[in-house]
Structure formats: C-alpha cells, structure tokens
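Give me structure tokens for this 495-residue protein.
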Amino acid sequence: MGKPPATCILSRHPSVQACPVGGNTMTITFMVLLCLETLPTPIIWAEPDPVVAQGKPVSIWCQGSQNADQYCLYREGVPEPLRREFPLEPSNKAKFPFPHMTYHLAGRYSCLYHRQTSWSVPSKPLDLVVTGMFNKPSLSALPSPIVTSGGSVTLQCGSWQEFDWFVLCSEEGEDHPRHLDSQHQADGWFQALFAVDHVSPSHRQTYRCYGYFSSSPYVWSTSSHVLELLISGVSRKPSLSVLPGPLVASGQSLTLQCHSDVGYDRFALSKEGAGDPPQRLACQPQPGLSGADFPLGPVTPSHGGRYTCYGGHTLSSEWSAPSDPLDILVAVQLPQGPPPTLSAQPGPAVAAGENVTLRCQSASFFDAFLLSKEGEAGPPLHRRSQHQDGEFQADFPLRAVTLDRGGTYRCYGSLSSTPFLLSHPSAPLELVVTGVPASVTSSLQTPDSTSAPRPDHTLENLIRVGLSALVLVVLVVLVFQAWHSQTGSQGETKR
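Here you go.
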C-alpha cells in the first residue's frame, strides 16, 4: 500500500499541516485510518487537574511520538479543531493553556498529532469539568467518619437543589470519580449514597463531592467541604477532659482537652452521631505529656452530645483507640416552663457525719433530674423522675457528709428525647457542713442541757492517766527492791 493521496494534506506548506476536520472523534479516526499510516496513540491529560474551579487556569497536555511537528486539540461535538500547538522541547508533547476556566470550555477533549506526512489516531477522551456553578452539596459519613481498619462506611452526598447526579472524588486521586444518580427523598432532599469498603490506613481517605444536571454533565456545583475518614487503630487511648465542666449554659464557652503520655503529635475530636469530619489539632507539647485543646464557644444547643478523642502520628494515617466518652450538657430554655426547684431535707445546714437529701422537683414533666455542684469538673448526678403529690421529683441522698460536700448546688430537668439539653438551672442552694460532729445526748438531759456545749476534759484525763502510770511504776520498783533485799538476807543466814 502506497502513501496517502495528496488530497489528505490540506496545507500548502510542507511542515505545517491543517488539522483534520470532522464531526466527532469517530469521524476523525475514520479519516485518519482511511488515508494515513498509523502512528502511536497520543496521551492526553490536564494540569493541575481535569476538575477545575471557575476562573482558575488549566492546561491540557498532549504527548505523541518523537519528531512530531504539530498537535491538534478537539472538543466533542465541535467539528473544527479547538486549538493547534507546536511541540515543546523535547518535541514529543505540546501544551494547550487556558488562563481562565469557564463553562464554555467544559467538555470532552481528545488530541492527535502530525509527523512528517502522517496523522496519529485521536487520544482517549479527557473530561474537562468546570466547578463552582451551583451551590455546594453536603458530604457526611454514615454512621460516623470514624472507621476501624478494614471496615466500611457510607458517604452521603446531598442537597436541597434538584441535582440529577452526584459525583464523589477522592482527594488522593487514586480512583476515578464515582457518579451516582440522585435519589429524591420525601422531605425534598436529594442525595446519593456511596459505599466505601475495606478502609485501609495505608493512605489517607479524603473525599469531596459535587452535584450536576443531566443537561450539562461537565458543569458541576461548588465542591462540598473535604471529608477525611479517621481510621481508628489499637494503640493506647488518650484521655478526654473538659474545663470548666461538662455542664454549660448556652452562649458560654468551654474547652475539651485531649492528652496522653504516649508521644502523639496530633489529636482529633469527634462527636457521636455527627457525620462531619472530626476536628484536628497538632499537639501542644508539655513535659512528659502530649495533648491538644479544643475550644468550643459560644456554645449552642448543637454542641451538646457525646465526645471522644484520638491520638495519632503525623507519618501515619492510623489513629489510636478512642478515649472514654465525655458528655457535654447544654442548659437551654425548654418548653416545659420555669426551671425546677431545689431543697434540702431536713435543712441546708448539717453537721459532718449526718445525712441530708437534696430534692429537685417541678410541676412540669421531666424524664430525669440532674444535680450539679459548683466548681466540680465531674459529671452531674442523674436520677429518674418520680411523680408524687402532683409534682415530678427526684431525691439525691448524701450520706455521712464530709466537709468537702459543702458548697453551692443547682439542679436541672431533662427529657429523654434530648438527653444532652437541660432546662435552665434551679435557684442555687448553699449546703453548709459544720466541722463539729453531731453529739450523742442522754435521754435524761433537759432540752437546755442538750443545747449547751459539753466541757472538754481531754487534758484532765491525760493528766490522770499519766499519774496513774507513774504510781504503778513506783510500786513496781518498791516491790522489786523488797524482793532483792529478802533474797540477800537469806543468803547470809545460810553461811
């Protein structure tokens, strides 16, 4: 078979050939194969990425064989070549730069090149996507972004906008984007559920998602926030604490502290049931201890919940086992009405060693009541509500109270439907514990004598005991001397 006919060369200049013209890639391929010898298939790619935000620069690269003299770029559906470029050194590739990405440039691209008297076949297609054209969807992990190594998780991409399709992209670029059609929920929400199986700590698991319409598949929404899965391992768990305490009023601030004696250099804080990615912080070194502070504030009702934290090392994508959980309770205005009341039985003043009961009660319904002492960082006491005498109430018995049980107490009401939201507190109750134990009085004493303080005879008793011991010692000495004298007299008589 001879060389292609002269009619295939569309330019008069021997070194600059006009790009082939056709309606689509298949037509161009047919024309090339019909009249030209076959060259190696070119490779096409985009830098920095084929998914480009509106207004950002992007370049399409086409790589062919050595000694190529020109490259042509095509967009699907456009018969004329979009651009023609001459090769860079080395001459096996060309660059097609676009300073500003727009929706007019979005589409499916292919390229081919010319060498001597021949054209190559077109490259495989490249999908160039513009983003930022619609509101961003949300991306969350179900049931949680915390996954054990080897486990599975479902990523939910959703929006109130009526997207026909959702796309899930891996930030690491290891997988091609995954497309799923949108599912319309009864409440008007549109979503797609992407299963991620066999999660491994060998590389970071970081994702984002987009939405688009069937009529413009290369024009996507703004990106969702980036979601990174936290892969929990088996290394020693850190500890989680809170300052000033786990019970806070709406609008106030608190700080969650994650710390460990293991040398972790980063920490993550996660809230149970939240699909959002955990908060992450680098450690704040302390002598012999690593840790990080997670400030929350001003606190809103959405901050209420159960928290855990994790420790990790920068060079690994795996995290530690979770800390013990910590509950954050937020006091808000509940629809029940006024806050409960707090009282002490038999009274708010008690001697050390006696018993006292603090009673929290309300005319409004609460499933439970909680008792908190001012200045204590531990969790409040919790009791189920009992209905009695037209009131809902709970008793908190304090037995054999010590001096440290004195202080200011408040109580709160809670509903089982919102266990981390509490009512406004009761009025404060000051419990006074005196340092003198309750005295035991004789039944024969008069009321006046029971109320008068008893004299302290401790010193007198000590003196009496000392004198008795001294008399006893003297008697022992005298007896010993008498015995010794009698023994000596008997010896002399025998001689």
